[in-house]
């Protein structure tokens, strides 16, 4: 297995810390930057000079046209040149590959999707190679590729197990790197989303932050001290053993009354089909529930209560500053958000502070963007620390 070999520039540790601070929080005045990093004005000038000369950092106009005075002369805030590098991110599902190109700040500038007609690793790698050629056209500063996969990923390189792709021990990073010639990093898709939201999204600047995803499965990511907490059981289906209602339904993909059996899209569809004999899409079930159709409404209300219990328990034990709810199942909040909120309150201390629950309506391109952030991290931090 080859290591992911990439670095931003030949930067000193001090220069790298300045660049990362501006990347994540910029534009920043030199005064604010020096305060954040506990640097003297002279040290900051020494560290920023090569970053500006290399084109990585640039002085930008102050908001409102006001510039600060630094040692007797005007000084403008510093920001990164987001377009100085491009990154590709892929989200691989059971039947599609979603691809995006982002800037250094993870803004999506291009999208390209292709159907996945086979799970044979060699064929998937060939498809990723073709998509990379198309996405890379006209982007000579392409710096790396990130890939998000539903499954257990080892060393950010090998897909140890993926139930959706039926893979085991596939060295995906090495294979794609050999096909494209670019640095490649692979990660569990939920972990990639958590990293993206921690660096550039809802969790930026927070010490304790949780991402909870609902959709085909249930995903969970925890951030403490501003860093994602990795764990050996990542994507091992913890939700099927998280019992929220011991007398709840038993489905093919979960223990009785588990979060998975109550809350995932396949099992919501299964419950409605078992009760009515009709196969409905998730969107149809939500519409019928909103219209008061008895069985869909009952299933959706049970799912909403399960979600409320899950969020309350996370809040009680983790004490997060924010919980981000994402995934293709978040439409549940539009139909039964009040039930979710009532259930959260019922399972919290009456005097507990309200949970900051943010819902993100997203598609698989957001998950692909999360994978691109993995490549940004490898470039910025270096392979050893990403």
Structure description:
It is a single chain. The protein has 386 residues and is an alpha/beta fold. It folds into three domains: 13-61 and 75-80, Winged helix-like DNA-binding domain superfamily/Winged helix DNA-binding domain (Arc Repressor Mutant, subunit A); 86-195 and 366-381, Nucleotidyltransferase, domain 5 (2-Layer Sandwich), CATH 3.30.420; 205-362, 2-Layer Sandwich (Nucleotidyltransferase, domain 5). The protein has twelve helices and 17 strands. The strands form five sheets. Strands 7-6-5-8-12 form a five-stranded mixed sheet. Strands 15-14-13-16-17 form a five-stranded mixed sheet, with helices on both faces. The protein has a three-stranded antiparallel sheet with strand order 9-10-11, covered by helices on one side. Helix 1 (13-25) packs across helix 3 and helix 8 runs antiparallel to helix 10. The longest helix is centred in the C-terminal third of the chain and has 25 residues, at 294-318. It is globular, with a radius of gyration of 23 Å. The chain starts with 12 loop residues before the first helix and ends in a 5-residue tail after the last helix. Belongs to the ROK (NagC/XylR) family. It holds the Pfam family ROK.
Search tags:
single chain, 386 residues, alpha/beta, Arc Repressor Mutant, subunit A, Nucleotidyltransferase, domain 5, 3 domains, 5-stranded mixed sheet, 12 helices, 17 strands, disordered N terminus, ROK, WH-like_DNA-bd_sf, ROK family transcriptional regulator, WH_DNA-bd_sf
